[in-house]
Amino acid sequence: MAAALRDAGVNSINVSLDTLDREIYAHITGRDFHEQVLAGIDAGIGAGFDQIKLNTVLMRGRNEDQLIPLVEFAGARGLILRFIEMMPVSTTDVLDEDNFMSVLEAKRLIESCYGSLIAETEFRTNGPATYYQIPGRSQRIGFIGAMTNLHFCESCNKLRLTCDGKLRPCLGSYLEFDVMTPLRAGASDEELRQFFVDVVDRKPEQHDFRNHYKPNRRMIAIGG
Q1: Which residue stretches of the chain have pLDDT < 70?
Q2: Any idea what the Cα angle at residue 42 is, between residues 41 and 46, rounded to 5°?
Q3: How far is the C-alpha of 87 from the C-alpha of 27, rounded, in Å?
Q4: Do the beta carbons of residue 47 and residue 67 sit within 8 Å?
């Protein structure tokens, strides 16, 4: 599949990898697919994608001991690693002290091993991550602090396409717009372009995760 995606013109891929421990991975995801994920990462490297980003959701009590091994794993393969604060997409229970780990805490843990990270304010990818360089290396790691960064939404440019043809301008909002209907009705390229522009214009100033959000779709049904 990696080669087929690359041949189709895909330049960049994201892969979720919360741990290098197979048992913990199966416990977190409910699926024993750890070996397949690692094989997929190697296949992506072999296919020559311009950029491969690994996404690690921070989970206290589950994977804080995996942060340094994941940094080494990504560095050895020339991949970008991003640490993401847990968000209450599927359940609000994740926001207690037993589960939640902030990106600031993760950054401090990483710096205790490597020294002060070097901010790379000019480096951007297609998303709201803040990037740093590991001292003495060319390796970059990123942090996505949607819960603790009060200005997080100011830099977010994400749209999400659900499996049933809805565009969501914000992960942490109920707003959804049906793009499948105009597509199947034969909308022109210009009409679709305007549809996307209108959805972008509806992006809220702030997500609702901190105050009013109530889960309605599981993350797997929302998409990336």
Answers
A1: 89-94, 208, 210, 212-224
A2: 120
A3: 18
A4: no
Here the tokens at position 188 are 């022109």
pLDDT the model gives residue 124: 82
SS3 sequence of 73-103: HHHHHCCEEEEEECCCCCCHHHHCCCCCCCH
The values of phi and psi at residue 155, to 5°, are -110, 5
What is the bridge-based pairing of β-strands 140-144 and 80-85?
parallel
Question: What tokens does 200 get?
Answer: 């972008």
Alpha helices in 115-150 (DSSP H): none
Q: Is 19 helix (H, G, I), strand (E, B) or coil?
A: coil
Q: Which amino acid is at 132?
A: Y
How far apart are alpha carbons 140 and 117 in whole angstroms? 10
Residues in a beta bridge with 121: none
